[in-house]
Amino acid sequence: MNEAYMHSEPNQSNKGKRRRLRLLTFILMSFMCWTAITLWNQQGDLNAKYTRLSSIQTQLEESKKINEQLKMEITRLNDNEYIEQRVRKDYRMTRPGETLFITPMNGE
């Protein structure tokens, strides 16, 4: 009877260890799957945000260029000679006594 007891006790002990090991393995595998899925999703979100950031930086650079051009135009508009050139060019105005010749452009 002692021999039977001695043989049966290690089997139950091993069975319990195996169950705990399987449970621990299952928990670790579940955690690793959750981590992998989370990292995959975050990588996709990160790529989308990098693309959006690149687009916004391009828009910012264009806006800065336009802003600089407008500042330059404001500075020029304080000069009377520049205003006179713009009026002559844009509105085809002339000084008294001047004759304006308009040449047709190609295709018009």
From TrEMBL:
<keyword id="KW-0472">Membrane</keyword>
<dbReference type="InterPro" id="IPR039076">
    <property type="entry name" value="DivIC"/>
</dbReference>
<keyword id="KW-0812">Transmembrane</keyword>
<feature type="transmembrane region" description="Helical">
    <location>
        <begin position="21"/>
        <end position="40"/>
    </location>
</feature>
<protein>
    <submittedName>
        <fullName>Septum formation initiator family protein</fullName>
    </submittedName>
</protein>
<dbReference type="InterPro" id="IPR007060">
    <property type="entry name" value="FtsL/DivIC"/>
</dbReference>
<keyword id="KW-1133">Transmembrane helix</keyword>
<keyword id="KW-0175">Coiled coil</keyword>
<feature type="coiled-coil region">
    <location>
        <begin position="53"/>
        <end position="80"/>
    </location>
</feature>
<dbReference type="Pfam" id="PF04977">
    <property type="entry name" value="DivIC"/>
</dbReference>
